[in-house]
Amino acid sequence: MNMPGTLIIGDHLNGSVRDITKEMIGAALSIKDRLGGPMIVALMSENPGALTGAVNLQGVDQIVTVKTAGDHFDPHVYEEAALKLGERFQPKVILCGHTVNGMGCAAAVAARLGAGFASDVLGLDVENGELVATRGAYGNKVNLEVSFTGRDIVVLALRGATFPVPTAVGNAQITGVDVDFSAVTANMQHKGYVEAPPSNIDIAKAEYILSVGRGIQEKNNLPRFEQLAERMGFTFGCSRPIVDAGWLPKPHQVGQSGRVASSCKLYIAIGISGAVQHLFGMKHVDTIIAVNSDPEAPIFNVATYGACMDLFELTKELEAQFN
Ligand SMILES: Cc1cc2nc3c(=O)[nH]c(=O)nc-3n(C[C@H](O)[C@H](O)[C@H](O)COP(=O)(O)OP(=O)(O)OC[C@H]3O[C@@H](n4cnc5c(N)ncnc54)[C@H](O)[C@@H]3O)c2cc1C
Fold first, then answer.
1. Residue to mutate (ligand 1; options 292, 302, 309; most atoms within 8 A of CB)
2. Cα(248) to centroid of ligand 1, in Å?
3. What is the widest separation between alpha-carbon atoms in the chain?
4. CB of 308 within 8 A of CB of 274?
5. Which atom of ligand 1 is nearest to the CA of 255?
6. Which of 13, 79, 96, 161 has the most CB atoms at less than 10 Å from its CB?
7. For ligand 1, what atom is nearest to the CA of residue 213?
8. 68 Cβ below 6 A of ligand 1
9. Nearest residue (CA) to ligand 1, atom 51
10. Closest ligand 1 atom, CA of 103?
């Protein structure tokens, strides 16, 4: 039977603690009184001591530093460290970010510990002493509350930009822990980061964005929307499948793994369903116009104006207006 308490697997990139790590601390703090036990943050890095200041926040009792061969994320190293720390500290909950890094190890850690597991968690609660996690389902059309009856330990991957970050500084004890990585380090080798090629598209600075999604159906249709955006004086954005298909380069992508439309005043979403990862990059925009033939598309939940119709019909009208 595990002790109560939370172990947070810190996420960092290029020498900086990522926001998701602080958000996980906020999430753990919100249930700490009811869950009980200590809150421990684990930092795996070549020089973990340099990261401790950023996670010494309200509610953190202990920061555990684990020295690794490199500064970069390695799923096998993180998995091994999380497993060993889980066995050593016996927390009730292990939190990872629902990020590329977190998802690279969270499910494996859960499987190896025989733990309960939920990904993309957007809410946490404790009911009658039992942990309850909320996550989206069916393309985020509904929220599910997941409980973990019979599990001594639960691994959760938390959604980013969802939980508040504590503002007060903490008074955590810092402990170094040695983990033997000899069995895993030969599995893969980090060669370096590849910087994205320079681009004149800056989604973060654009005030007006016209974005297209999979609804435009084929690559041949793309120039039509690109020209329309240009004629309207809008920056041309897109959802991730358009980039994954190689139709547009990465700087055009709006969303969690793309860019956030931080300066945008007007966002037009054409043929975009409104998956949570896309909304991450644009749902804050003051005026959002969504065009989608599906009245149930989640994009309409954040749209200021919605046109539930065939996007090609509406595009024809816009082309006539902006010719
Ligand atoms: C870790 C992770 C990170 C991710 N990061 C991002 C990200 O940064 N950005 C991002 O966008 N996604 C991201 N995704 C992917 C995301 O989950 C969705 O798969 C993606 O946003 C869907 O893109 P879409 O809306 O273009 O496509 P779909 O979901 O396929 O939606 C297409 C829409 O077009 C509509 N449509 C079709 N034909 C017509 C028509 N003729 N007229 C009008 N409407 C029409 C449909 O009704 C549908 O709603 C990420 C996923 C993961 C797991």
1. 292
2. 15
3. 69
4. no
5. 8
6. 96
7. 26
8. no
9. 277
10. 1
Q: Can you tell me which residue has the tokens 């709006």?
A: 254
Domains of the chain by start residue, with CATH: 6-176 (3.40.50.620), 208-321 (3.40.50.1220)
- pLDDT in the model for residue 142: 80
Q: Residue whose CA is closest, atom 27 of ligand 1?
A: 214
Q: How many CB atoms lie within 10 A of CB 107?
A: 17
Residue with tokens 């993180």: 78
Report the distance separating Cα 57 and Cα 42, nearest Å.
13
Residue 140 confidence (pLDDT): 65
Tokens of 86: 């889980």
Q: Which helix (H) or strand (E) holds 86?
A: helix 75-89
CB neighbours of 321 closer than 8 A, spacing ≥ 6?
Answer: none
Mean pLDDT by 10 residues, the chain (323 residues): 83 94 97 96 97 98 96 93 96 95 95 96 93 84 90 94 92 97 82 81 94 98 97 97 96 92 94 94 94 97 97 96 90
Specify the residue with its C-alpha closest to ligand 1, atom 30: 214
- For residue 1, what pLDDT is reported? 46
One DSSP character per residue, 19-86 reads HHHHHHHHHHHHHHHHH-S-EEEEEEESSGGGGHHHH-BTT--EEEEEE-S-SS--HHHHHHHHHHHH
Å from CA of 291 to ligand 1 middle: 13
| The Cα angle at residue 258 between residues 216 and 224, in degrees rounded to 5 | 25
Tokens for 119? 């990904």
